[in-house]
Design goal:
The structure holds 3 protein chains of 3 kinds.
Chain A (H helix, E strand, L loop, with lengths): L1 H16 L10 E10 L2 E11 L4 E6 L5 H8 L7 E6 L2 E3 L4 H6 L2 E4 L11 H6 L14 H15 L14 H14 L4 E5 L7 H16 L3 E5 L3 H7 L2 E6 L2 E6 L7 H9 L18 E9 L8 E6 L3 E6 L5 H9 L5 E6 L2 E2 L5 H6 L2 E4 L3 H5 L6 H5 L9 E2 L2 E2 L1 H14 L16 H14 L4 E5 L7 H16 L3 E6 L2 H7 L2 E6 L2 E7 L5 H16 L1
Helix pairs in contact in A: 5-6, 14-15, 15-16
Chain B lengths: L1 H15 L6 H26 L7 H19 L3 H24 L5 H20 L9 H8 L1 E3 L2 E2 L2 H17 L1 H11 L1 H6 L4 H27 L12 H11 L11 H20 L7 H22 L3 H9 L12
Antiparallel strand pairs in B: 1-2
Helix pairs in contact in B: 1-12, 2-7, 2-10, 2-11, 2-12, 3-4, 3-5, 3-10, 4-5, 4-10, 6-10, 7-8, 8-10, 11-12, 11-13, 12-13
Chain C lengths: L17 H23 L18 H19 L7 H17 L4 H25 L4 H20 L9 H9 L1 E2 L5 E2 H19 L1 H11 L1 H6 L4 H27 L7 H14 L11 H20 L4 H26 L4 H9 L7 H4 L10
Antiparallel strand pairs in C: 1-2
Classes of the chains: A alpha/beta, B mainly alpha, C mainly alpha.
Chain lengths: ~525, ~325, ~375
């Protein structure tokens, strides 16, 4: 153990003396890594080699093990077995601290900064330079050298501003700057683009390309296959904790090949449904909805019976805030009409009672009860109507109710009695759909219903949305994935900076059109 | 801002009860605030790492009775007892840290448990005796001023506060404390030895509680089986941290605020008594002050800045956010 | 086409989950404790089953604490904590006694005091939920204020002198028969059954547990989170007040000096009973068993000539720490990290910080 610490210290000391150009090219190998969490295998004998000067992408469905792989390689999770080899040297007992000593850094999916501290301090955290006095921190040295790192990643911020004032994209770039400040040349990006807009993602890709030119060793994870194919030099596919395929030439690889390697079998291509619902009655109507904090303003639209209405918009455009105001999680001015009647004093419980449901965007925080049985997760919104025997709840009847709902949404679980966290992301989302279908909705708002679910679950979720809209439910679908809006929606509204900027119906719904509308270009194109 | 409020309370009380402002009384108030101030400084360090330490009361008690009994029996000097007081605090604080860090018991419960156990140890040490007759040198140190209105007792309190403030602001350890408190996960990923940092925070807190025990016995001149717990000093210390601008969510605040908050709290409670309210209501006074403190804390969290920062920006001053908050 | 094969759900209870195993361990611990005292102390069984010298008779020294434990348990289930329970019990007793001394019928005074304590619990709950304050600190402050109020109200001498029938009914009386059962045990049994059914078999109980597991998710699922939390504080205050009556009846005088001990022991019982201090997890029967484990520990050790300090402070504190250390190890093996939960609960309140804590959220799992 002490040998490792010494080596890390030596490496860190060495690192602080060399300049960016002097990095030795690093070839980083993970050999037959196995890792399990509480009995479930996240990685089974998986091997990956990342060469210097390449962007190596790991793809796979949720739970395939790609994120675990990078976390093991960055020392965040210790592996159960297998070797990590950097330029022929075995790294043993790796921790983030020693990994940084070896020049390895992982930029996480969601930036995790110390929000109450300054950008400057976030940049140097862990390697704060010593000043002239013993034990003293040299703030001046930190301030003067910070600028160079910020510049390298294209960040223009006040180093003394608290990190909480930075946008998500800026926080992400600050993470990259930290990697550089820590003299790391093996940099992993764990789904960095999922919280970013397309434009912000481009900035990040540009940075990745520049680092590649400097012979950095880069690994990348993404669910957006287009960007994967565009930026990768090599692709490794993981499925069910194993490495199942390599693509050494992404330029000649098709989207479809990649997906089939990920899911392990062929997938059917979905066709758009063509329906005319212009005559159907409006069941949900919003008039001049506005948020007190200005997150959105003047939102007016209606959703018809049986219609799938898309709400397209970037993260932070106000789409989630609008939906949450309708559902009653937030306050807003303006009027909401439900089945023609004004619906004031909104709250989640009264919304559910009157058949208005909302599937929240952040499943981990706002959706599932991770440690609660799947049964009770499914019936969570159904508590006021749980079957009773006498004055007391009737557990067996509850199980039957839940089981029926789970069957409708194809939840796959060893038993509905296991805790929710034992299920994969896709099955958790299926259980969430089961929960909301139990409420027998008339209006269903789905916020990013396919975020963090695998391809198989996605297809199922599309099927559920088709079925319930056919049965007369008005579906409002919020999504960042424009492809799925094109596939599913009868009508799409675009929200930009808290206002509705455009509306398209039927065959007008195209990727290009939506892509322009979500960045504010909708209104002009409509004329 | 706190200083202003404290002076205001002092002024009002003096106006109502002229003897409140007599020279000896100011000195006495400052001196009697010092045990609390030193405990509060330690508690602040734990609060900065998102922790809470309820066991500081019996730690203070154990240090007070141990050193007190030795002094009573063998007339040693105060300074010679300093290592013992510190060692007791370090040991007990380190145990707290182990429970929180390695046994992963939530700090509130872990220190509630050690509060009980340490309280038992304090009783065992006392064995139904009390510290009552300290050597004259101890009494003198506890009651004399080295300048008019500046008691000797003030010196260790001020030194500890300044030292901790500097350490927190200017050392890697101090910055790691803030980093851990602001986001433990991120601190881990950035290569900070999170377990060591967390344990060290509890150890430092214990150490200062031990020191406070020595200060307490010198200042008060007596100690017994429930010293520390009887005045719920752990809760007063948390209140001081909150009033002084440190949040319960970690990574924000500083020890200077806590030091002044301790003086403020002491003056306010003393004011309650001098103002003629029955002593029974002193405990309610702590309760009310605590409520006010957490309301301020909640306000700061919601506004994303401390009350004193808000005030400063209104007055036109500007300071970087990570400066020691609110003094 | 379908990607997923037709699914079969096997809905059955797994044989033993963590909560079950915890409860079995507690039962074993209880039996071991009773056996130890039985063989170690000749007088533990005293003059036979249920005489006032036997182990059932010891109930009078701890059953009121068990009632408080049941009350504070509701609050802990929601992920809050109530540190005012001990002072609440003391205040309730003094209030009842003062009403009685003032000429009120003692039973009316009892009901009125319990009701007023429920109102105080309501106020605490409302302050916590409305101002979004940490329950730990609010109830701490509330406890201080109640303590002052109780001490100031009672004056120099604690009120005493209740009718014998009252002392007997809620205090030291028994139901005689082949087995003498202390009246307090009956009161506790009634409260225990109510608590078990409320938590595990009512809609309110379900909401209580869901709120404890994940407050945000509960809100999105239509649970009235604040109302549920407030109700828990009301229940906690009510149970404490009932315990306060039993204390007054048992000692023949209202006491303000027991409060801190009551609080610590009650929380120890709840945690030892397997209820997750962060809310949600655990079973009421576990808490009931734990109150007996804790309850018999002190009188048993005292009978065994163990020093008073060891029996009342060091042993229970060590038991709490040891139990939690073991539970922590068990939970970690199950993949539940206390630390993750700490971070999830104490996460910074500002909206942007949601991103910082995402990695610690339970259930996000590995990808």
């Amino acid at each position: 153990m002490s040998v490792i610490v010494k080596r890390a210290r030596a490496a860190a000391a060495l690192a602080s003396d060399r300049t960016a150009e002097e990095y030795a090219p690093a070839r980083y190998e993970a050999r037959t890594i196995t890792k399990s969490f509480g009995g479930a295998n996240a990685l089974t004998g998986a091997s990956v080699t990342i060469e210097p000067g390449e962007i190596h992408t790991l793809v796979g469905e949720n739970g395939a093990g790609k994120s675990t792989m990078l976390k093991v390689m960055a020392g965040i999770h210790p592996q159960d077995s297998g070797d990590l080899v950097l330029n022929g040297t075995h790294l043993r007992g790796l921790t983030p601290r020693t990994a940084i000593g070896h020049g390895i850094y992982l930029v996480p999916q969601e930036p995790s900064l110390m929000l109450t501290l300054s950008a400057l301090e976030n940049l140097f955290v862990g390697i704060i330079p010593r000043g002239s006095m013993a034990f003293s921190v040299d703030w001046k040295a930190m301030e003067s050298s910070a600028g160079a790192y910020f510049q390298q990643v294209g960040l223009h911020i006040d180093p003394w501003a608290p990190a909480s004032q930075l946008s998500i994209a800026e926080q992400q770039l600050l993470e990259c700057a930290r990697a550089l400040a820590h003299r790391c040349n093996v940099i992993f990006f764990d789904e960095p683009t999922s919280p970013l807009t397309a434009r912000e993602a481009d900035v990040l890709f540009e940075l990745m390309r520049r680092l590649r030119e400097r012979n950095f060793t880069i690994a990348f994870i993404s669910h957006r296959l287009e960007e994967v194919l565009a930026i990768s030099d090599r692709i490794t596919v993981l499925r069910d904790s194993r490495v199942v395929a390599h693509f050494d030439n992404p330029k000649q690889t098709s989207h479809r090949q990649l997906v089939e390697a990920m899911v392990g079998h062929e997938i059917a291509v979905r066709q758009r449904r063509q329906r005319d619902l212009s005559g159907a009655e409006a069941v949900l109507e919003l008039k001049d909805l506005g948020a007190p904090d200005g997150a959105f303003a003047d939102i007016s639209f209606m959703a018809r019976r049986g219609e799938v209405l898309g709400l397209a918009g970037l993260v932070g455009s106000g789409r989630t805030e609008t939906a949450e105001s309708v559902f009653g999680m937030r306050r807003a001015s303006g009027t909401v009409l439900l089945a023609g009647k004004p619906y004031a004093h909104r709250s989640p419980s009264s919304s559910i009672e009157s058949g208005l449901i909302y599937l929240p965007e952040d499943r981990g925080h706002n959706g599932v009860f991770a440690n609660v049985e799947v049964v009770r997760n499914i019936t969570a919104a159904f508590v006021p109507h749980l079957p009773k025997r006498g004055q007391l709840l009737h557990p067996r009847a509850e199980v039957e109710v839940a089981e029926k709902a789970a069957r409708r949404t194809r939840v796959v679980a060893p038993s509905l009695d296991v805790p929710m966290k034992a299920l994969s992301g896709g099955n958790q989302q299926r259980a969430m759909f089961a929960r909301w279908l139990l409420a027998e909705p008339k209006v269903a708002i789905f916020d990013e219903p396919t975020r963090g679910v695998d391809v198989g679950a996605k297809v199922d979720i599309y099927g559920i949305i088709d079925t319930i809209s056919d049965s007369g439910v008005a579906v409002v679908m919020i999504s960042s994935e424009l492809e799925e809006l094109v596939l599913l929606c009868d009508r799409v509204l675009a929200i930009y900076e808290g206002r509705i900027v455009g509306e398209v119906t039927g065959d007008e719904i195209t990727l290009e059109r939506l892509g322009a509308m979500v960045v504010g270009g909708g209104a002009s194109e409509r004329d | 801002m706190l200083v202003v409020v404290t002076l205001a309370i002092f002024g009002l009380t003096s106006a109502a009860q002229p003897h409140f402002a007599l020279q000896g009384n100011i000195s006495f108030l400052l001196a009697s605030a010092m045990p609390l101030a030193v405990v509060a400084v330690g508690e602040t360090v734990v609060m900065l790492v998102r922790g809470i330490d309820l066991s500081v009361a019996p730690v203070l008690g154990i240090a007070a009775v141990s050193t007190g009994f030795i002094a009573q029996d063998s007339h040693v000097s105060v300074l010679s007892m300093l290592p013992l007081a510190l060692a007791i605090g370090i040991g007990l604080g380190f145990v707290n840290g182990l429970f929180v860090t390695y046994a992963r018991i939530p700090p509130i419960i872990a220190t509630l448990g050690t509060f009980t156990v340490y309280g038992g140890i304090e009783q065992l040490i006392c064995n139904s005796r009390t510290v009552v007759t300290l050597p004259t040198s101890w009494i003198n140190l506890g009651t004399h001023d080295f300048l008019p209105d500046v008691p000797y007792i003030l010196v260790p309190g001020v030194l500890v506060t300044i030292a901790m403030a500097l350490i927190l602001w200017r050392t890697r350890w101090g910055r790691s404390i803030y980093a851990f408190g602001a986001n433990a996960e991120a601190a881990f990923r950035a290569g900070i030895r999170v377990k060591a940092i967390e344990i060290s925070a509890y150890t430092v807190c214990g150490m200062l509680a031990g020191l406070a025990g020595l200060i307490y016995v010198v200042q008060v001149g007596s100690a017994g089986y429930n010293t520390g717990s009887e005045i719920s000093i752990q809760l007063q210390a948390i209140a001081c941290g909150l009033i002084g601008g440190t949040t319960l969510t970690g990574g924000k605040g500083g020890v200077v605020g806590s030091f002044f908050a301790a003086i403020f709290l002491t003056v306010a409670l003393e004011g309650v008594i001098v103002a003629g309210i029955a002593y029974q209501w002193q405990s309610a006074g702590v309760g009310v002050l605590l409520l006010v403190a957490i309301l301020i804390d909640a306000y700061q969290n919601r506004q994303g800045r401390s009350v004193s920062e808000a005030l400063r920006s209104v007055l036109g001053g500007h300071k970087p956010v990570q400066q020691e908050a609110s003094s | 086409m379908s990607v997923v094969a037709e699914t079969q759900h096997v809905v059955r209870r797994r044989r033993f989950d963590t909560d079950d195993r915890w409860m079995i361990s507690l039962v074993v611990l209880l039996v071991a404790e009773l056996l130890y005292f039985n063989f170690g102390i000749s007088t533990f069984w005293g003059g036979g089953w249920g005489t006032s010298y036997s182990f059932l008779g010891y109930g009078e020294s701890f059953l009121f604490t068990s009632m408080i434990a049941l009350g504070v348990m509701f609050v802990i289930f929601t992920g809050d904590i109530d540190l005012s329970v001990g002072y609440m019990a003391a205040f309730a007793g003094i209030m009842m006694a003062e009403f009685h001394i003032g000429g009120m019928n003692i039973w009316i005074a009892t009901v009125l005091s319990i009701a007023l304590c429920a109102v105080i619990g309501l106020i605490q709950g409302l302050v916590i939920t409305y101002f979004k304050l940490e329950s730990l600190l609010v109830t701490l402050a509330g406890g201080f204020i109640l303590n002052s109020a109780a001490v100031a109200w009672e004056g120099p001498v604690p009120p005493y002198g209740f009718p014998h029938s009252y002392d007997s009914a809620l205090g030291s009386g028994d139901i005689s028969g082949t087995i003498q059962i202390p009246n307090q045990l009956i009161v506790f049994a009634v409260l225990a059954v109510i608590a078990t059914l409320v938590v595990h078999r009512t809609r309110f109980g379900r909401q209580l547990v869901l709120v404890g597991h994940n407050r945000q998710a509960a809100a999105y699922a239509g649970v009235r989170v604040s109302a549920t939390r407030v109700k828990a504080f009301v229940l906690s205050a009510t149970f404490s007040a009932v315990a306060g009556m039993c204390i007054a009846a048992n000692y023949g005088t209202a006491r303000d000096d027991l409060a801190p001990t009551l609080l610590l022991t009650a929380i120890t019982c709840v945690v030892l009973g397997g209820v997750d201090i962060f809310g949600g997890g655990g079973r009421v029967p576990g808490v009931i068993i734990a109150t007996f484990v804790m309850g018999w520990l002190a009188p048993g050790l005292l009978q065994d000539n163990v020093n008073d300090t060891w029996a009342t402070l060091i042993a229970p504190g060590t038991l709490l720490l040891a139990a939690l250390t073991i539970k922590g190890i068990v939970d970690r093996r199950q993949g539940v990290s206390f630390r993750a939960k700490t971070l999830a609960r104490f996460g910074p309140g500002s909206p942007t910080s949601a991103h910082a804590d995402a990695g610690d959220a339970p259930g996000t799992g590995a990808t």
